[in-house]
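Here is an idea for our session: we take a single protein and study its fold together. Which protein we use is up to you, so please pick one and set it down. Once you have written the record down, we can walk along the chain together:
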Amino acid sequence: MSGMLEASGAAPWTPSPRYPDPSVVVLDPSFLKYRLFAASVERLATGFRWMEGPVWIGDGRYLLASDIANNRLVRWDEATGATSIFREPSNYANGNTRDMQGRLVTCEGAVTRRISRTEHSGRVVTLADGFDGKRFNSPNDIVCQSNGAIWFTDPPFQLTNDYEGRIAQQELPSAVYRVDGVTGQVTQVLDDLAGPNGLCFSPDETKLHVVESRAEPSRKIWSYNVGVEGGLSNKTLLIDANGPGAIDGIKCDVDGNIWAGWGSNGSPNADPAQLDGVMVFNPQGNAIGHIRLPERCANLCFGGIDNNRVFMASSHSLYSLYVNTRGAEIRA
């Protein structure tokens, strides 16, 4: 597998010949600061089954992402534009990040149902695979704090079918966990969200934002104060999808704006052209911009040599867009 992958599952795509790209929609004048006039949405590769968990590996100039239903991690190379298999099988890997030593840390959503770490040698080790004597459900999204702690969500999504995972018995409630960066101790920090999904820290790491993807009647993003020892408090509703919008993975930029994977969630009354892509919210939770894509975007990350390129894992394809800001996530 190399070059641009094309398959029957690929969504129709015509790059814009115009600047500014009409796919980059300004919902509030404040977003003009972040839109680059001469940057457009690019499709990097296509032909996948369901893309999640992009992570930028800057020292290698490549992007990794999880093609979950194909049970593999794929690699897109910035220098050549080639796409190849990085790891297969991947234990139905979902979210990925890098720790403070630059090692790949992965949510393995089925079979192992663990948080794994890929050592610099290439050896894959288990960081955590359960809590209180029970197995995790299907670890979903993951973020590393600058003190070395690793935070991840654990909904049961990949236990329900043999397409994106393996049908299995749920042993633990849906929850959010923290793995201590020094001791490796696993702590359950939240267990009151229906389907916890994407999560990210504010730029100063005093806030943790978490997506509740099974909230009724619509998906929500909650914000919590983060204590010195990792405790969470002051649960505050930051964003409500208010209808058919489906929030998935999220990332913060250095100004505290939240960039959210967004889609129509299959609602019969929704116009995918108005929803699919990435929605950008200011720190107060107000929508200010929308990157329109022909496919639902599940997850995204910032990357590139200046950390100002948004990479978007979107159903069958990978897309990117240069923006006038940088990702806030601490990098090794």
